[in-house]
Design a protein that fits this description.
Number of strands: 32
Structural class: alpha/beta
Shape: globular
Largest sheet: 8 strands, parallel, barrel
Distance between the termini: 78 Å
CATH architecture of the largest domain: Alpha-Beta Barrel
Radius of gyration: 28 Å
Number of helices: 27
Strand content: 15-25%
Strand order of the largest sheet: 12-13-16-19-24-25-26-27
Number of domains: 4
Helix content: 25-40%
Amino acid sequence: MIRRDETATLALADWVRDTLDGAETSFAGQEVLARRMGAHLNERLCEAIFWTPELLEARVPEGDVYLEVLTPREPLDLQTARQSVTFDIERVPMARVDAFSLVAADGLTAGTREQIGSFYRLAYRGADAEWYHILDPMAWSLPFGAFTPAEFYDVEALFADRADADYWRQFAGDAPHKFGPPVSIQQIHVPTATAGGTLAALTALYERLAERVRRGVELEPAERLFAGYDAVQLLPVEPTTVYEAGPAFWQEEPGEDIATVELMRPDTTNWGYDVVIAGMSTVNPVLLESGRPDELVDFAAALHTFPRPKKLILDVVFGHSDNQGTEVLNSYWFAGPNMYGQNMNYRHPTVRALMLEMQRRKVNFGADGVRVDGAQDFKWWDAEAETLRHDDEYLQQMSDIVQEVAGTRYRPWFVFEDGRPWPQEDWELSSTYRAVIENQPDPDVFQWGPLTFAHNTPFLYGFWLSKWWRIREILNHGANWISGCANHDTLRRGTQVDTKLNINTRLGNTRMEILDKAYDNPAIQIVTYAAFPGVPMDFLNASARASWGFIRNQDDRYGVKVVSEEAISLKWQVDEYSYSLPQSFPRLKALGFEDRESLVRFMEFLPALVEVTDYDLNVIAKLLNEVDPPLDGPHPVTVATLKEIARAWMDDMHEYCNVARHHAQLSPAQTKFNHELREFRRARPWLRENLNERDRFDYRRPVEGTVLFTSLRHGPDGEQVYMIAHMEGGPTGEFDPLRLPIDGLEGFGWEVALRTPPIGGDYISGPLTLHDSQGVVFTRRP
């Protein structure tokens, strides 16, 4: 029996009332309340607090508001694709204080790693005598996603006995520990990082790798992809949007005391940034093999107990919500539409406090650092000045949060993606990429640098000299920037470039080879790791020379349009051989696109028709049916078949992008070189600092058809690091890199530290000829 504990409920109501009445400001009171929002286990009781201003607006009496608890009659299996479950429903009356509905209830089962807890939501009876529901956006566990009842979870058990407790205890002290930047970062999209596509599968990968490192065995190319980094940054792991047109993961036939529910294991594919804000405290169930949020704790522990501990960086998305967020959050959360969906109402004290609390809870899973997506989108409307203003105070509050893991209080390292004044038309010219750095007093606040932001195309002729002014900024201001050209955004943008532009054909014989080498380029890597200041970051899919794109299969209304914009990636990432493989593009083949050329032809027509018809699906279908000779694929083409093709594209591309599918094609020489380069950087942490007056960075002049970068840097111990890299153009002709007229290069004692493939180990000095993407790193000690 689920029942209300009257004494505890009244005490909880008094605490809420005292907190609101006694706070110096409204926001200060909401900050305190936020810590206890949602459902928490307090000894045997479930204490639940919901923010429900919509009930006040609708004048729903307190006596019609309940905590609704759903208990399955048979044990659930979260690893089953589909199941039909009967839930017993019990409702406990809730009390109300101001805009908060609350109760302390006895009899609920708290979820743990081993057992599934009770499901819950707020239920209220409308004037029409029908039942309506409010979901918990602050939930700790959402096995079926943010649009379903939450699971009551034992949070103390979630964080207790973590395998990395000793790692955290070493940072304990009287004041909160402040984490600084790592030496290098690997960016990972969990669903495409392993064949399993879950956090558990990724944890197992790191545990195996750790054991091989301890044993001192020679790593294989696929293992070297993950080795040598000091931090792992996961693309967002929050719950995302769901299928617009269904099916829902929780399909309920309600009754008065029971509910029959068709449950579907969440299986959406998403690149992580289509969040709905609700559920940000927990983990996207699509990423959980077991359905337990404990998998994120396990992953953090696997990194922290690595032979050389790695930091965990979580990517959080609080700058916007997809429009689907309006289906699960009340209207007070939002401040109007934007290009992504909805602006968040940052100035509302409750919204502000709850979002900061969501962040605190998520980072307490065990993250050392936080990357903030789209910080330029944190804005509020100044009605007096009639203008939008950046909410830098909110960004400061994000980085001021004190976390606690295993008894250790700390402040994470923070990095912001902020390209303001984006989306202003001249943002690529006018953005300084230093707005947050200059506005926050913390010297360890970082931003994404200009070559890390979107729209970088290192496979076009003239790219490097066209970016020279930005490179000079990196050299002078880049100590607090993330550097590198390959990340989830730049690689995606690269696949959308018109293939008729001036492509650097020296990078490869095919477009696939050109794209792969552009974003896993030995010369760029040498410049990034042996010359540029800041913190280098690599994207796993780029390092593995795997495919990548805008992966999201939930769209119904705009799915066809999204695919039409992504269709050009066929020319960049898919050749006839890769398409022909049995495991590649099975859904599109089943729809009649049996070979690559048939799909390419269809995708040539689709983007053009999307544009000329202003995305009228009925007209697009009609015109596609009239193409002569007829297109391959479903016949006749209808709006429904267009949506089916779009869904098949997204699902097939998601599988095609999986890194595990590309292991066999990895170059042992290239993966070994990249690993050695990371170790080289780690041994010289001083390279993170801006160039000083003794350092030199330039390109050879006159250019004469070859962009040749040179760098000479001086360490505090007297060591010199000299780098020369062929960025683009024809071969240099034979020359001696140590005889160039660079101040400080004179003299003897230089030794080769790194050579890009295919320069052999027999080269130790003297004349050589460099080709596109080749380079050498020399060192000299005093």
